[in-house]
Amino acid sequence: MDLHSGNLRALVEARRHPDGFDRLKEIAGSERWVSAGGGRARRVLARIRVVKGGSLADITVGDALEYDAELRKTACGVSSGEALYYARLRELGHLPADAPTALRFLEKVTGQLTCTQLIDRHPIASPGIRALLGRVLYGAVPRSLPAQLALLLQASRIRSQVRCRHQGVRWGGAVVAKLIRDQELDVEVDFYGFALQDVDDTQVPLEYPEGRVSEGPFLTAREGRLDIESAGHTHTATMTAEIWDGPPPVAEDRGDWEERGEAELHCVSGELAVWGVAGGPMDTYLHLSDGEGMWRVRVYCEGRAEVRRLATEGVPEGIEHYLVQFWPAHA
Fold it and tell me: How many Cα neighbours within 13 Å face the side chain of 328?
């Protein structure tokens, strides 16, 4: 079974002990179950179930610790959904009463460093050597998850994500890009839209929302700004912004994306402000560089169907999520 298939989650939930997932759905509630974070948590549980076998009740704290350690070795961070699965396991009531209350506390209760942390204590820049050391160290201790899980994570995430931490790494004969920095933002969406606009408004012929096309394309580039259309009228979205030194790897496996777009932006100041349709500029800034530059940008979005529904009933928070990747246009 392809562990990164888009149909994996549905197949596992339907065919492998569906009663366990049905009970989890009942406990979590329909809104949390179909949210973007809930979907990522269910995807993690499905992967562990396929590799480990058994039912959700057979997943242990040790399995969660090993999965988390592998994920941190091979990813550019752990998303909220990838950590949320542990909370779902606790809600099922199968973990011991004295188990850590959150995934982030798992490493603290052991009193010792993980293999990944041991490697990180040394300035080893080569990803090949780091991966080799990780395999040796992790292979020297008993594993409750089969080795296929580590191989899965390495195959799928090293290629698309871990390489972002190292400059000049070659993959298949090509030099891959390096992630310079990332930033987490909250975006106050109103009237189904927002924009990323150069903070030097003297370089922006039309300030947002002038020229905006209501119900227009998901992503529109204008001089000095990027217009982005949301699926909800009024809500708080989350955004992960990444600055790369070259074209980043595609991020299709990093979310359940419902929209995506790519454009080019000229930014004079090197910084972008987040603008609302009626709210104007927010106290939120995105630093691209220390000066003028031409940038390529790729935007992904998930949680749109859910925020479209919830925004008709209230002002939801954290349902719609954006991943925005910038890199120099000349790279």
Answer: 13
> Which stretch of DSSP H or E encloses residue 48?
helix 36-52
Nearest to 49 by CA among 79, 9, 88, 86: 9
Q: How far apart are CA 153 and CA 50, in angstroms?
A: 14
Count CB-CB contacts under 10 A for residue 82. Answer: 21
Among residues 75, 67, 165, which one has the least CA distance to residue 124? 165
d(CA 237, CA 310): 12
Residue among 21, 13, 322, 28 at smallest CA distance from 187: 322
Domain ranges of the chain: 8-165, 182-328
pLDDT in tens, 100-155: 665 555 544 444 455 565 566 555 556 656 665 665 555 443 444 444 444 444 44
Q: What is the end-to-end Cα distance of the chain in Å, rounded?
A: 37
163: DSSP letter: G
User: 182-328 in CATH: which number?
Assistant: 2.60.34.30
| Residues across the chain | 331
β 235-244/317-328 pair status: parallel
**Interatomic CA distance for residues 115 and 133, integer angstroms:** 9
For residue 216, give both structure tokens.
Answer: 């227009």
Over the chain, what is the mean pLDDT? 76
Task: State which amino acid sits at residue 3.
Answer: L
Q: What are phi and psi of 26, to 5 degrees?
A: -65, -40
pLDDT per position as a tens digit, 169-209:
444 445 578 999 999 999 999 999 999 999 998 899 999 99
- The first and second tokens of residue 296, run together, are 């390529």
pTM, full prediction:
0.53
260: three-class secondary structure by DSSP: strand
Q: How far is 273 from 199, CA to CA, in rounded Å?
A: 6
Locate 225 and state its tokens: 């700004």
Burial (0-12, 13-18, 19+ Cβ within 10 Å), 162: buried
